[in-house]
Design goal:
GO terms for molecular function: arginine-tRNA ligase activity; ATP binding. One of its GO terms (cellular component) is cytoplasm. Keywords: Aminoacyl-tRNA synthetase, ATP-binding, Cytoplasm, Ligase, Nucleotide-binding, Protein biosynthesis. It is built from 23 helices and 14 strands. The chain has 623 residues and is α/β, with parallel strands linked by helices. The strands form five sheets. The protein has a four-stranded parallel beta sheet with strand order 5-4-9-10, sandwiched between helices. It is globular.
């Protein structure tokens, strides 16, 4: 929609000024100021005052008025825009026509609404999740996992060839600690659980505080692993197998599917080549037995190889870049990793640039913040331990089940109650359903945790709050899921005998509010992808759900009196037939059938389902 409007405005402004001028549109902060607004008159007038162009206009307002007059006189412009207003100090505000809004409604009911070819012919690699093997999946990895999956979904929907890669942490000195623990205690690694492996790791760190020689033992064992020692390799392989089984369970629960899992160990054979190229190109130099990279801008030097010959994260991440460029040749590589790794990725990207690998801007670190407790401290157990993600998800499902069981005895599900006007204050849905349903509890509980994260900007720290996560009122997944289920309930009840004629043919405010939200959906998808911000999509869905509930509570969709209408023709007919029906409903002096409100409901449901799916959240048909 934005491009359609810009296509009308740019030629007018360019003709008026005698040269090409950049025109930008934005949505006004308040709905009463229109659907779009541009400050082009102010931007242009500022340049003319500096003597770059002679002008006859005395103010941005005067220039804006002339642009308005010329736009209003352009043939066909009225079909797109029904009203233009100039507002101080020189804004031009536009209101889209009802014809355009109805056309957009007809697009909105399609299952692929908002799909775009923005990324056609381009590839993006998204590096996300990346848990460390031999440790349970911690709450800290949830953000990378679900934000990364949402980014993948958005880019795929917008035409990019998307390649997900799970950069598993399966290499490094920490494995030397586990190898020492297992061998020194004579344990059979095949009999160990992932929780027991974590316990061994913690025990080592505690003992090493008293016995510093243990750290040397750990380094020795990791060096044996790097050198291909058969015993070290065999134990390490078992640890990987135990961990992968555990992670697959978590990914299944989260409905996350990462097509590749090239762990750090995958690049071991490339490390010598990377180091050799760094030395050959004089990017690295030796310093007290270690190899370091010094950066021309004064950034903290990076360690390429330790003095004992062991590799580092920098070495392995450079090898990863080399591998990805050679294997996939992507246009963009996104690293969804915690903000605490900012310096590390600055070093990695700068080193790649010094080596001549890739191009500037080809690599992007999508930082995420921390989960915090209500006291503002890092989210952890009472003992100060890492919170296991599975425990959080289990509690979410349990809470969702209790929420279902505690619903009102009379039932307020759309499956049980005929529409009879407002049923709750503020346009908010009520409880899910009285009978507990573990399948539904999983969908609602897991969806609630995911949405709570995704509704925040990735870089922000999040205070973990169960009340907000599971809220049935407010910006939460249960609220949006319930709203979607409500739309489907209305449509299931929309038999030919339930369609009636309304005595009013003009758009009601709540109906128009929804219509003026639909067309923004494709724009929000693009903005969410370009800015690596799934929260933009999440908040759009919440806004749409609020507007639908306000409409639902104020207006009757399925009245008692009935007329003969063919439901299939209305909801399943061709676009042209439905568009003609809707346009007639909105423009005719005759009574208006409630076809319009049903298609409006269908459009809301379609967008909510698509949007939730892109966030990796299920939309239940019934609640």
């Amino acid at each position: 929609m934005e491009e359609k409007l810009l296509g009308k405005i740019r030629p007018i402004v360019s003709d008026l000024l005698g040269e090409e001028v950049k025109v930008e549109l934005e949505h006004p902060g308040q709905d009463e100021h229109g659907d779009y607004s541009t400050n082009v008159a102010m931007a242009v007038f500022g340049k003319t005052k500096n003597g770059k162009r002679e002008t006859n206009w005395t103010s941005p307002m005067e220039l804006a008025e002339e642009i308005k007059v010329r736009l209003e006189g352009r043939e066909g412009f009225g079909e797109l825009v029904e009203k233009i207003e100039v507002a101080p100090p020189g804004f031009i505000n536009f209101w889209l026509s009802k014809q355009v809004l109805v056309g957009e409604l007809e697009e909105a009911v399609q299952s692929d609404y908002g799909r775009h070819d923005w990324g056609r012919g381009r590839k993006v690699v998204v590096d996300y999740s990346g848990p460390n093997i031999a440790k349970p999946f911690g709450i800290g990895h949830l953000r990378s996992t679900i934000v990364g999956q949402a980014v993948c979904n958005l880019y795929s929907y917008l035409g990019w060839k998307t390649i997900g890669d799970n950069h598993i942490g399966d290499w490094g000195t920490q494995f030397g600690r586990l190898l020492y623990q297992i061998t020194s205690k004579g344990l059979d690694p095949k009999q160990l659980t992932i929780d027991e492996l974590e316990k061994l790791y913690v025990e080592f760190n505690t003992e090493a505080q008293e016995n510093l020689e243990l750290n040397e033992e750990a380094r020795r064992w990791f060096k044996k692993l790097e050198d291909g020692d058969s015993e070290a390799r065999a134990i390490w392989e078992v640890l990987r197998e135990i961990s992968f089984r555990e992670y697959e369970r978590i990914y299944d629960l989260l409905d996350v599917h990462i097509e590749n899992a090239y762990g750090e160990s995958s690049y071991e054979s490339m490390l010598g080549e990377v180091i050799g190229e760094c030395l050959e190109k004089k990017v690295a130099r030796e310093d007290q037995g270690a190899l370091i990279i010094e950066y021309p801008d004064g950034m903290t030097p990076g360690i390429l190889r330790k003095s004992d010959g062991a590799s580092t994260y920098l070495t392995r991440d450079l090898a990863t870049i080399k591998f990805r460029l050679e294997k996939w040749n992507p246009d963009l590589v996104i690293y969804e990793v915690g903000a605490e790794q900012s310096l590390h990725f600055q070093q990695v990207f700068a080193a790649a640039e010094l080596l001549g690998w890739g191009s500037k801007g080809q690599f992007y670190h999508l930082k995420h913040g921390l989960y915090l407790s209500p006291s503002g401290k890092k989210f952890s157990t009472r003992r100060g331990d890492t919170v296991h993600l599975e425990e959080v998800l289990e509690e979410a499902v349990e809470r969702a089940g209790k929420l279902a069981a505690s619903g009102p005895a009379t039932g307020s599900s759309p499956e049980k109650t005929e529409q009879a006007g407002p049923r709750f204050s503020g346009g908010s849905p009520t409880r899910v359903t009285r009978a507990p349903d573990l399948g539904l509890a999983r969908v609602v509980g897991v969806g609630a945790v995911k949405y709570f994260d995704l509704s925040h900007h990735p870089a922000s720290d999040i205070v973990f709050d169960w009340e907000k996560i599971m809220a049935l009122e407010g910006n939460s997944a249960p609220y949006i899921q319930y709203t979607y289920a409500r739309t489907q309930s209305v449509l299931r009840k929309a038999t030919s005998d339930s369609l009636t004629r309304d005595s009013k043919n003009e758009l009601q405010k709540e109906e128009e509010d929804i219509l003026r939200t639909f067309y923004k959906f494709p724009e929000v998808l693009r903005q969410a992808a370009e800015n690596f911000s799934p929260n933009l999509l999440a908040n759009f869905l919440f806004d749409l759900a609020q507007k639908y509930n306000a409409f639902y509570n104020r207006h009757r969709i399925l009245p008692v009196e009935a007329e003969r209408y063919n439901r299939h023709r209305i909801l399943g007919g061709t676009l042209d037939n439905r568009r003609q029906t809707l346009e007639k409903d909105l423009t005719s002096d005759a009574p208006v059938p409630n076809v319009f409100r049903l298609v409006l409901t269908q459009g809301v449901g379609s967008i909510l389902k698509t949007g939730l799916s892109l966030l990796g959240i299920e939309a239940p048909e019934k609640m």
